[in-house]
Amino acid sequence: MSTHNGSVPGSAEPSSQEHTRRTLLVIGGAEDKRRRTLVLKRFVELAGGREARIVVIPTASSMAEEAFDVYQSVFGRLRSREVSLVNPQTRLETSEPSLAEAIDNATGVFVTGGNQLKLGQLIVGTPLHEAITRAYHRGAVISGTSAGASVLSQFMISMGEEGVAPRQRVSQLSAGLGLLPGVILDQHFGQRTRYARLLSLVAASPSLLGVGIDEDTAAEIVDERSMTVVGSGAVYVVDARAAVSDAHEARHAAPLMVSGAVVHSLPYGAHFDLGAAQLLDFQEMHPEVAVVTSPTDAHDTANAAAALRR
């Protein structure tokens, strides 16, 4: 089902004097969908539990119908009140009033994995983008996994070389939904060795924090500042604001010099201040979560769909 309303969203506060809690649940991909479903359970709780009205946007996926079926099954099993689909196939289609209407009625919006550049091309800067921003500012929880996580920030990584050694000009940023300003989000972080590309990007743009999220792990971010880690992996924060780098003069693909960057490794139970870039609290947690890693989101979706059919 395609479902909407209409402006290019900004990050303006709601006009009401009363503060509304704004919540993002940013998931690193390949979250457990069959066992304890710790991360997805948290999303449903934030969306209202048994009263949750969830909209799934699988537009990034090459297997959009299968991806929706998987999440509809999981959220249904977690007793959500309603799970509906918004899946525009063209940029023009995002102007359909039924799409904004579905988002306006949701208590939670979930963007699946796939190709984040596709999300940028089809959704960013459209009436559907405006509806998502509006939902976020009225208090609906906005969540994304894998590609759906990357697009939540102001600037998203649309492509980039993986590995340990950062290199100059081998990664690229594109405009995201802008719900989390001042941060670059990356996913499948430890599993796909994405430390190099995140470090190279924050070295070139040191005013931005880099946040890398492992699979089956989520960063729960309130009011663009307070971050709590949930799940079986870790969240990494890369702060290059006081670092020295030759990013402005290094040759294409040359090893990048970065000295003085600060890296925070934050497991389940860590509470972190993104504004001050410092740890606030840590309560050690030991989730018994079985992590199923996969080379692609399509593979992960296919495996989950096959398991649900069984």
Write out key terms for the chains shown:
alpha/beta, Cyanophycinase, Peptidase_S51_cyanophycinase, protease, Rossmann fold, disordered N terminus, 310 residues, 17 strands
Quick description:
This protein is α/β, with parallel strands linked by helices. Helix content is 25%, strand content 28%. Residues 1-15 have a biased composition (Polar residues).
Protein described:
- This protein is of the alpha/beta class.
- The chain has a single domain, classed as Rossmann fold, CATH 3.40.50.
- The chain is built from 8 helices and 17 strands.
- It has helices at residues 38-46, 64-77, 97-104, 116-122, 127-138, 147-150, 195-204, 297-309, and strands spanning 23-27, 53-57, 82-85, 108-111, 141-145, 153-160, 171-175, 180-187, 209-213, 217-222, 226-231, 234-239, 244-245, 258-259, 262-267, 270-273, 278-282.
- The strands form 3 sheets. A 9-stranded mixed beta sheet has the order 3-2-4-5-1-10-11-16-17. Strands 7-6-8-9-12-15 form a 6-stranded mixed beta sheet. Strands 13-14 form a two-stranded antiparallel ribbon.
- Strand 16 (270-273) and strand 17 (278-282) form a beta hairpin.
- Helix 2 (64-77) packs across helix 8 (297-309) and helix 3 packs parallel to helix 5.
- The radius of gyration is 18 Å and the shape is globular.
- Residues 1-16 have low confidence and may be disordered.
- GO terms for molecular function: carboxypeptidase activity; peptidyl-dipeptidase activity.
- Residues 1-15 have a biased composition (Polar residues).
- It comes from Ornithinimicrobium cryptoxanthini.
